[in-house]
Amino acid sequence: MRVLQEDHGGYVPEVRNILFLVRPKMKIMKIIASHIRHMSKNSASTKHFYIYMIPRKTLICEHILETEGVLGRNVHVHEFELDLVPLDDDVISMEMEMCFRECFLEGDNSSLYYIARALMKMQTFFGLFPRISAKGRCAKQVAQSLLRMRKEVSGDALDSIPPEIHQLYLIDRDVDLISPFVTQLTYEGLVDEFWGIKTGVFELPEAIAAKREAAKQANAPKEQQQPIEQKKKVHKMALNGNDSVFVELRDKNFISVPAVLNQKAQAIAETENKRHTMKQVSEISNFIKKLPELQIEKDNLATHIEITAKIREKTTAPEFRKLVHYEQDLLLGAEEKSIQEYVEECINKNEDFQKVLRLLTLLSLVSNGLKPKQWDFFRKEIMQTYGYEAILTLDNMEKVGLLKKHEGKKTFEGIRKGFKLWVDDLDESNPNDIAYVYSGYAPLSVRLIQQAMQPGGWRATEGLINSLPGPMCELTQGQSSEGMSGNVRVVLIFFIGGCTFAEISALRFLNEIVQQSESDDQVTHFVICTTKLVNGRTLLETVCEKVGVLRDL
Questions:
Q1: Residue 479 φ/ψ, nearest 5 degrees
Q2: What is the pLDDT of residue 216?
Q3: DSSP string covering 20-35, please?
Q4: If we measure between CA atoms, which residue out of 370, 359, 363, 287 comes closest to residue 324?
Q5: Model-level pTM?
């Protein structure tokens, strides 16, 4: 298995059948055509090429393959409907990393078709969604597409399936653009901020990987031990519900992580010490059966302790503290002059371009745009520091709405007060509000879900919700959710354009609050679905243009 590169590098595999798993992009088709021509020309035997496009093949891609002269007897084109990828018990991703760019920058709505088709597939398994609530242009389009697709299904096949999902919420990313650009302060969020989590997998920092490998070698039989320096491979770690230590850490504000680790270490030690008091053979036998699981838990605990130490190094650095301080000042409505000076300072120091863009985006969104003089000043400073090519990225950000010129009165202040987006006197170690995930700031997207769960739902605050970007839409189909039997209520929340790990943590906390208010015979479960898990950096990367390279359309 190899990652497809633009340059084939003279590589010709010895196998007879070659499989390409790719997205249906025109640029990728040209690369594949180049590889096929090279392999066919430089191979002694006849090869067969199978191109599987995810999630569906398109006529334009097939046309390009035909134009390139490779679509023929030995080239077979198919589609692989890989749409919903479960990353955890309550998190599903479509892994469409370019969805935000396509929907909100390029005006390409093909992603919305894929989303509607994936949700339609869910309805064939779990029955019709009795209630659909959508906020945003794309969300409304997906909701309407679902109704249209339902009519295209023959007969009443879907009506006969007992519904298991009570409510579907669809939310566009541009309804709440602020939350992704605020630094996440949960354990999982910080891991994603500093190192990145891709498809539920985290690449361990080199120092931690080396310690982990050394411990593994020490516990291995002598005949299986190898010199550590010979094992220079990338160490990856799955971050999901299978790791019991991670489950207890992931949604915590980082302030409370050391205490949780200490409690976990004590619990493991107590479990191990119980063996000294065991007298019955059955007790000893059961303990021996649990030893492998206990060892895995100990190894995971040791790894998370090392990760926590690395995060602590980064979060106690003066620059990180200064960044979080200015972000929170901005969200609180503090004077903008000091924040503008900080952004200017970052540019003058030639700091990470993404950091500068994130700060500038927050400043623009909170202030309802930059004043003309500020706009011209920052554009000039950025071009002088990061090169004239940066103007392409700034233009893209303006088109998406991340950057804009000042449009009169600030609207964020009213939204912050109306939705109570800032919570004072918050105890991050023992929180009572979703705002703990950002140490005071409550993500607007999750506040919308919280409001929807209240009596009257979104209609109770319709004026406030209408002040947010995009239309609001509420639809019903099939039987009413009130008439559904069973004591488990499943709520599906879908983010179009991506969501952050901090938002997921906030939704899990909100789910706990909802469950606490319910009667003993009723329980609500949130399932979070998104086109891609993102943070401020990865979201910006989708709208950034590579330096010196124009995007191949």
A1: -80, 155
A2: 64
A3: EEE---HHHHHHHHHH
A4: 359
A5: 0.90
